[in-house]
Specification:
Layout lengths: L15 E4 L3 H11 L1 E7 L6 E6 L2 E6 L5 H13 L5 E10 L9 E9 L15 E2 L2 H13 L4 E8 L11 H6 L4 E3 L2 H11 L2 E11 L8 H6 L2 H9 L2
Parallel strand pairs: 1-4, 1-5, 5-10, 6-8, 8-9
Antiparallel strand pairs: 2-3, 3-4, 5-9, 6-7, 6-10
Length: about 230
């Protein structure tokens, strides 16, 4: 079985998968954390690998940027490849003064300015939340490793270059910790299918302080969140 976006055959992808936006981060995780690695996808250079972490089978695959891209890959992984636990490992921008560069966020929920959930024709607003099972485990793993994490709400935005550059302050004012572009679609797809999803983010830049990491740092140095995610396998 293959799809238009994934050349993997049935059985080549583990039930637990890590989903970085950057396919090069997927390659980094596979090369530095997994054993007996097999590449299962290179379509559109959206690299995917399956290997073993501490004896347990786990996969990792890039998803690209934005909810349309995450929506495609996560849907196919769930419905065509039987994935049960989908863990986004991504970067985000901080909206809060006390959420610093390299801090880790466990996204309990995702706000959005996207119309992604309109497909469900719900008579209201869908609140996209993480799997409590994965969230609880991730927090315990972080605590055991003495990794400080923040648990809370983030924004999944369709817009990177906003015509109103100060609008982020409205989200900050209501307690949103930071912004990324994929979690809402992941949580919605997982909820509809009855599987588990969690988003773990490392702060790559701050809209408050204007600090930022380099692309190479985002690819190769956000290892603490990778370790937390891999321990969930």
């Amino acid at each position: 079985m293959t799809t238009a976006h994934n050349q993997a055959k049935k059985g080549q992808i583990a039930e637990t998968i890590l989903l970085p936006g950057d396919p090069l981060r997927a390659k980094f995780i596979a090369e530095n954390f997994l054993e007996d690695v097999v590449e299962f996808n290179s379509v559109r250079n959206m690299l995917g690998y399956t290997g073993k972490y501490k004896g347990k089978e786990v996969s990792v695959m890039g998803t690209g940027m934005g909810m349309p891209s995450m929506g495609i890959y996560s849907y196919e992984l769930i419905h065509f490849y039987g994935v049960k636990n989908l863990i986004r490992v991504g970067s985000c921008g901080s909206y809060q003064d006390d959420v610093k560069i390299h801090d880790i966020i466990l996204a309990q929920g995702a706000c959005t300015n996207s119309n992604f959930a309109s497909q469900y024709e719900l008579p209201g607003t869908f609140s996209a939340i993480a799997s409590f099972e994965l969230l609880e485990k991730a927090k315990k793993i972080a605590d055991d490793k003495n990794y400080k994490v923040r648990v809370g709400n983030i924004l999944s935005s369709d817009i990177f270059y906003n015509d109103h550059p100060e609008v982020w302050k409205k989200w900050a004012d209501i307690g949103v910790l930071g912004v990324e572009m994929e979690a809402y679609a992941l949580y919605a797809n997982a909820a509809k299918a009855g599987v588990n999803a969690l988003t773990i983010l490392t702060v790559s830049d701050s809209l408050v302080s204007q600090e930022a990491t380099t692309p190479k740092e985002r690819e190769t140095t956000f290892t603490k969140m990778m370790e937390i995610a891999l321990e969930l396998a």
